[in-house]
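All the exercises in this workshop are built on plain-text protein records. A record pairs a protein's sequence with a compact description of its fold. Backbone structure tokens are a discrete shorthand for how the chain folds in space. Once this layout is familiar, the rest of the handout is easier to follow. As an example, a complete record with its sequence and its structure tokens follows.
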Amino acid sequence: MTPRSFASFRQPWRLGWGAVLLVVGGLATGATLTPADEPVEWAVQAPLASESLLVDVARRGDLIVAVGERGHIVVSRDGGRSWSQAAVQTRALLTGVVMHDEQLGWAVGHDEVVVRTRDGGRNWERVHHAPEKEQPLLDVWFADARRGLAVGAYGSLLVTTDGGDTWTSRPVNGQDDFHLNHIDAGADGTLYLAAEAGRLYRSTDQGETWEALPSPYEGSFFGLLPLSDGSLLAYGLRGSLFQSRDQGRTWTQLETDTEATLTSALELGEGRFVVGGMAGTLLWSEPGGALRKQALPDRKAVVALGRGDDGVLLLFGEGGVKRVDVR
């Protein structure tokens, strides 16, 4: 399987997590984008929504929000012990979510959809939808209540300055059309993009301009994690995990002892972190810089990681949400 065909692992299809379908589409640079006029389809209420495929998670205060297949959004206010399904104006696979505070947030996904909540995740309105583009959005980030970025397939980067009411296309790096899989910000406000084909990008002006970073390998990156000590993790295909201590200028490869694709990472505090991936793979950082590998018994993919309460780690993926005690 080529890096291009695996570029958006967040898209599960009939052939499993390794098989991905991305149909060709393009963004008209500088065009103003508005929601499609067709009737809105609401996500079906499902009693087992918290056990369905969940792809991303966000937390603000006591509120935890996870998003996934068929427009499912589930919400917890008790540290991940119980979940309720939100009312959502889409049935598209949702791939990224961000919460500005405990009331306002956004989620993105297939059909270039963006949905927004103003009531703490209970209800989500569709504010952007462009199925004719035939390409998904894969992640979303907001600087404040009005300014945000959504990234996705074929170099898609959409910008809003009005809280998501309207979105405009902006190029990342000239004519690059690499799939942009993940966006995250360091403590100093520096933005990072993880992309396919070994591409990494950095912005020091909140996404106005981007520079390509030197890459340690040619395979796809599915995520980046800025750590509190100022270092940066980048992870992707075939167990590839790298660390930079100079904002991405140089990289050191970390030994993972796995060929499982790595899909998510979470800081645990005091320089500790955990990385999750395919086939139920977890990599725990150890004192001295070593990594401890763990394989979950059910072998189901871990696609996102979050913190519950009382030392609980929340795993999201093919098996819905699971709680793991890490004390």
